Amino acid sequence: MKHVTIKDVAKKLNCSVSTISRAFNDKYDIKKETRDHILATAAAMGYSPNPIAKSLLKQCSNQIGVVVPEFINSFFPEVIIGIQEVLIKKGYQVLIMQSNESQITELENIKTLENNMIDGMIVSLSLGTQNVEYYKNLIAQGFPLVLFNRVSNELDTSKVVFDDYKWAFFATEHLIYQGYKHIFHFGGPSGHIFTQKRKDGFIDAHRKHKLPIDDNNIIETGLMIADGERVMEKLINEGNLPDAIFAVNDPTAIGAMKMLRKHGYKIPNDVALVGFTESSLAELIDPPLTSVAQPTHEIGKTAARLLLEQIESKGIFVPQTVILNGRLNVRESSMKLK
Amino acid sequence: MKHVTIKDVAKKLNCSVSTISRAFNDKYDIKKETRDHILATAAAMGYSPNPIAKSLLKQCSNQIGVVVPEFINSFFPEVIIGIQEVLIKKGYQVLIMQSNESQITELENIKTLENNMIDGMIVSLSLGTQNVEYYKNLIAQGFPLVLFNRVSNELDTSKVVFDDYKWAFFATEHLIYQGYKHIFHFGGPSGHIFTQKRKDGFIDAHRKHKLPIDDNNIIETGLMIADGERVMEKLINEGNLPDAIFAVNDPTAIGAMKMLRKHGYKIPNDVALVGFTESSLAELIDPPLTSVAQPTHEIGKTAARLLLEQIESKGIFVPQTVILNGRLNVRESSMKLK
DNA sequence: TTGTACGCGTTATCAC
DNA sequence: GTGATAACGCGTACAA
Description:
- The structure is a homodimer.
- In chain A, 44% of the residues lie in helices and 16% in strands.
- Chain A is an alpha/beta fold.
- In chain A, strand 3, helix 7 (133-140) and strand 4 form a beta-alpha-beta unit.
- Chain A starts with 5 loop residues before the first helix and ends in a 9-residue tail after the last strand.
- The model of chain A has no long low-confidence stretch (mean pLDDT 90).
């Protein structure tokens, strides 16, 4: 397990290491034939410049770090594919880490990546992340950082976000137009912007249509299928059923759906459902779930582009926030009341 | 964006770099109070040893690379979580890359990771990977490598596999016991062990039960939902419908299901379905899909453990193949014929 | 056009 | 118990 180094090649060719180096970084004068010869023998020997050494020297690594909270739902993997599409073309390698929704793991990941001398970072904050001091430091030092979806108002850096308020509003309004009047919102964990925005959209749609609404309509649920199941089961046991539910995301909607089905309720006749953050699940389940679709690939690509801009614009950079558009995919789970 | 280095700390404390270094690697003699003092000021200055420099010196990085073909289906992400569970506890960082089912990208990923001086690698081969010469080289050099699920017989290294043959046999037999006689197999891409094994299980279950079977029962399909849809549509158009389908994986089964539903066919009454490689989808779709469940977390954990064994046993190491067990989850999509 | 020498941040091996 | 220094592999200013 011995790496071939530049010295080995130099020795073999009876020339100095700098000549070899020059052959690989062709910005210096070097005789074309010697260069070709060097490149050929180097290839034959299986030599390639050691990026670790290069990183140490140049203080950067041509690597980009990505930290996401999870990748069980298809959302983050799809975003990552978008990120890679842009960055790999530019010659960057993409290192992915997941924080498992834990602030501690997230911070460890960030530090690991930073220590690896990555040139920039794309992050979606974990649910557990309350304290963003570390990021403030990074930003203050001018470290290229782009946040997406799970962002923080306290951080002054480029962001790619989705207009959660608007689409939550539309989704709720859709239910209202369909004739539903007693609607519950299964909300996300408190303290997160997207949770608040989706809740606000839900509330304001009610206000616009002069439908009564109070705290009882809104139940903090979580983000996982199990959360939706748990809350739905409680409601069923209490006999406290709404006409319809607007869930903070698809998994909670699906959890609710599973529990309703288990207890013999019909969807949408007994309870209508609308989800958020389209996963591939929505159109496959029974019945197909109405949901707000986010442009996952586009989110990734945009985040990558913003990061590149910041990296290339050494210093003189003004953070931007890009708001991307979505779509409400109406399916059977929210069909009109008969 | 300037890192605090060991020199900065040494200067601040008016001592030599070696003293600082010793304070951080407490295997050498150092006065306890000076050590504590150093550690305290170092922390205050935000210093931590640079892993890049350490890697260069030690020729290893405490990092493990993971390369998977994709992470759109929940399978690989779940395996990765298992991998991380074991490795992070041991102080390793896990770098994840995806090959997008392309041999070229896979090879680039491998080289990137190798260049990063990772201490070992866990890989699941992409569909596009025909040539495994590069891996042979790695193995010959004693580089720690563990393969899982998408493995190659040509490579003599530790592997974590699933008994595809056995479970394909069981899944097919289940359909036969349910009374289905004219069964199709939607197969995976040829040239891959798991494809072949699942096909063999399908065939041998027929042989055991003396059911006629020929090449027409087996259709090379692919691995994605779209593949299942395409093949199913063709069969529908040709009026060539089986009683039941055993699909190489869940997405193809789901693709078939979607297309059947679209054309008004009932499942399982018109066509029964069984999938493979349980995704979270199986129990959520309509109707719930009978499928072979693989122990995703366990696959990841086992692969990680095998890798650790190899890393720790410098040299004197015999590759092992671990075969993990699964389960056939019987659901509505393959209920008994009436 | 090519070679020499230094430095990137560490740790290990010597001295002292 | 502590300090100086070589080495890891590379790029580049400078000298030749």
